[in-house]
Amino acid sequence: xxxxxxxxxxxxxxxxxxxxxxxxxxxxxxxxxxxxxxxxxxxxxxxxxxxxxxxxxxxxxxxxxxxxxxxxxxxxxxxxxxxxxxxxxxxxxxxxxxxxxxxxxxxxxxxxxxxxxxxxxxxxxxxxxxxxxxxxxxxxxxxxxxxxxxxxxxxxxxxxxxxxxxxxxxxxxxxxxxxxxxxxxxxxxxxxxxxxxxxxxxxxxxxxxxxxxxxxxxxxxxxxxxxxxxxxx
Amino acid sequence: xxxxxxxxxxxxxxxxxxxxxxxxxxxxxxxxxxxxxxxxxxxxxxxxxxxxxxxxxxxxxxxxxxxxxxxxxxxxxxxxxxxxxxxxxxxxxxxxxxxxxxxxxxxxxxxxxxxxxxxxxxxxxxxxxxxxxxxxxxxxxxxxxxxxxxxxxxxxxxxxxxxxxxxxxxxxxxxxxxxxxxxxxxxxxxxxxxxxxxxxxxxxxxxxxxxxxxxxxxxxxxxxxxxxxxxxx
DNA sequence: GTCTATAATCAGATAGAC
DNA sequence: GTCTATCTGATTATAGAC
Lengths: 233, 233
Description:
The structure is a homodimer of 233-residue chains. Chain A has 233 residues and is mostly helical. Chain A has two domains: 27-83, Homeodomain-like (Arc Repressor Mutant, subunit A, Orthogonal Bundle); 93-224, Orthogonal Bundle (Tetracycline Repressor, domain 2), CATH 1.10.357.10. The first copy, chain A, has eleven helices and no strands. Chains A and B meet through helix 1, helix 6, helix 7, helix 8 and helix 9 of A and helix 1, helix 6, helix 7, helix 8 and helix 9 of B.
């Protein structure tokens, strides 16, 4: 749970008191409950989707009364949005520093491995996000149309530059990004299917590394690139 | 709606009459309503998941009374299972005739293109199936453990043989199958995201062909294979 | 076979005691 | 800040008229 701060454009808990007193030390337990409810909500939304999840079960899972959920977040809708915002913040960290001068194989390899790692460490987050999009992304279409599209176009421009410089095979950059997204997130979203077919109880370090290696090799080779490890002398 | 037959291990409508009379011509409209409700249910389950979908909305979409849904299927649970069975039948058709003697590039290319086509023609089916698995596959874990696992192992054995014969690069067959599944289904399940980012209103023939071509090229190249088109003299 | 009316349950939300 | 009790509406399911 690496998010210490709750607020900022995310549904804020109601003001402590109208006069503003009693602010000094009360925030700690407030944040703790805030995060506990948020995490429980993520679990329930991942298990049943937005409509299917119930605030009662979220409260039960968090170990608080149902009314507390309404106190911290002002309703199911806001709670769900808070979960989604939390996920988007987590997603946005990656590939922000990518440049045309970088080595394509290294950048793509690193990106793929980070995505696999993220799928491994935050499967519920990936699932909530996946279901939101499957259901038509009714609450985050604005985000997709603005931030996410811009992000893809920025990266696509760099990949196009690499192609024009002859440093990789001519591939469609947007679809390359879709491929990396879909293959990596598949292991989080479809873990029940993947693990059952592979006859594994759960993901282990070794399997995660094997997956990351497989995806990196396949996709890099598909782009006409050699793995970064083989390139060093 | 290419499924003319409803029954067979799928929830059957209640018997017409205890004595068995009046069977000759009544089946047509019965099947029509059966299929209409099934299709409407697929839509609603794709939009809201199992828990989130309501039989009332399914009935509304199908243009029948809510009680009719309970008449044809004996409840929400059975209706959902019928939808899932319908989807599984649709999925199972492909790659059944794959043999060691076949050409790897041709088989994989054909498989990828069929999957892209299926994602294009049956996006709702893909979504219902995806959400079921994301939510832990509670109702089809048995199917995954038996039929689906056997299917993967059969195909994996053939791919392994190809690798041993040096006819393709050494890749893990199960993960190759996962890659084909995830990349192709992504365009159905995440259509809201894909289309928004690409700034398309909906999928068109040209885009579908471009996707199929991209995926086939990337994955075949990843397997050390040339596209079938380039292989013919 | 189909529909209306209704039962029984469960949902999200809020008031008010503490 | 937290809880219990309760309101209001939606949900699945069924009974019974036609």
